[in-house]
Amino acid sequence: MSASSVPEDTRAAALQAWLAQRPGCFEGLQLLRADASFRRYFRARRDGEPVVIMDAPPEREPVAPFLRIARLLEALGQRPPRIHDEDPDAGFLVLEDLGDRTFTRALAEGEDEKALYQRAIDRLADLHRAWPQRPAEATPALPAYDTPRLLDEARLFIDWYVPEQQGHPPTEAARGAWEAAWTQTLDALPRLEPTLVLRDFHVDNLMIPPEGAGCALLDFQDAVLGSPAYDVVSLLEDARRDVSPAVAREALARYLQATGWPDEAFRVHYRVLGVQRAIKVLGIFTRLHRRDGKPDYRRHEPRLQTLVRRGLAHPDLAPVADWFRHHMPEDPAAPGDVGDEGA
To answer: Per the record's keyword annotation, is Hydrolase included, yes or no (predicted)?
Structure first.
């Protein structure tokens, strides 16, 4: 992750004034990166030690959820960045600097894909095994990742991606059929005990920590309570990189063996939520392009379209596949002759 000079804006000025009032001497402040939200990250040294500073405008990205989930993850034996200082009202946090070795970077540097994905899936299995024994005093109330919330996310596709592809908004009939197809599909999911869902569990948000072993977690502030399959499919059907089918199959089998979820019920969740996530992300990336002027995310569209097309081959997703045949038969994401490489 590359750093750049400090931008000249009101938030950066407020951050510098805030740091001047905090314990320790902060030096070398540099913009590290901004993400797809309104958050930004800076790198600095406090009394000579490296730290990362989160800048999250309170009216846009409150930091309280990050703090709650970070503490919950620590209580569950996980490895979020340690929190050195916090000011939720101002929207600033001083965090442990975990370095630069995301799993994405490690893969680009030639680290073994299978070994890294096993490390990641083991972290997720550890988290899900620990969840039933979670300490009540450390567990915040979490939103349910249920049919209404998943359906709301699926609307991103029809609100943003469909108009972009078709050149006009969907008809009311198409919109109503979309909602009905997803409601039918999600309501038919077999029962699995809900667990902590981090929602962005993929190699961009996993770090090789300074101690070397295991993996550290980033970007978990939107955690919810839902299907254990969601984070697994987020990792193994990545929106941003192609995961080797053999690596994905082995990692999924390893996770199931470690956690003991009912195999077929879990795989139904995996297939359905894999498509739900892919169509949601297609909507988000289109919105980032059209509303926020960030077109680079759209380079991932072909991969996401392939994931959707492949997922729609499963009978579990028949209502959604029928919607595509009736309303978007020519779209690259519509059902086609893609071999099943997934669950």
So the answer is: no
